[in-house]
Amino acid sequence: MSEAEENMKKQVTQILKGLSADEQELLAKIIKAERDKLHMKNPRGINDDMRKAVIEIIKKLPD
């Protein structure tokens, strides 16, 4: 692994560690939606899946 790749990996790790629980949950839901559609040539409905994930997280937030 090159030095640039190593630095990028460290930065990504640092960012991921700094996410709140809600942000981690949202990221997990979006990654799952992406993986579920990865095999499709034309992944229909991915925007709806992501919108649904965001709405679920927002509804859980305190007023």
Helix-strand blueprint:
Layout lengths: L2 H15 L3 H17 L8 H15 L3
Helix pairs in contact: 2-3
Overview of this protein structure:
The protein starts with a helix and ends with a helix. The longest helix has 17 residues, at 21-37. Helix 2 packs antiparallel against helix 3 (46-60). By secondary structure, it is mainly α. Helices cover 75% and strands 0% of the residues. The model has no long low-confidence stretch (mean pLDDT 92). The protein contains 3 helices and no strands.
Q: What's the helix-strand series?
A: HHH
Shape: flat
Straight-line N-to-C gap: 45 Å
**Could you say which structural class the secondary elements and strand pairing correspond to?**
mainly alpha
Main beta-sheet strand count, sense and barrel state: none
As a percent range, the share of strand residues is: under 5%
Stretches with pLDDT under 50, minimum 5 residues:
none
**Helix proportion range:** over 70%
Gyration radius, to the nearest Å? 15 Å
Number of helices, where a helix is a run of at least 4 consecutive DSSP H or I residues: 3
Mean pLDDT: 92
What is the strand tally? Answer: 0
Comma- or semicolon-separated keywords:
single chain, mainly alpha
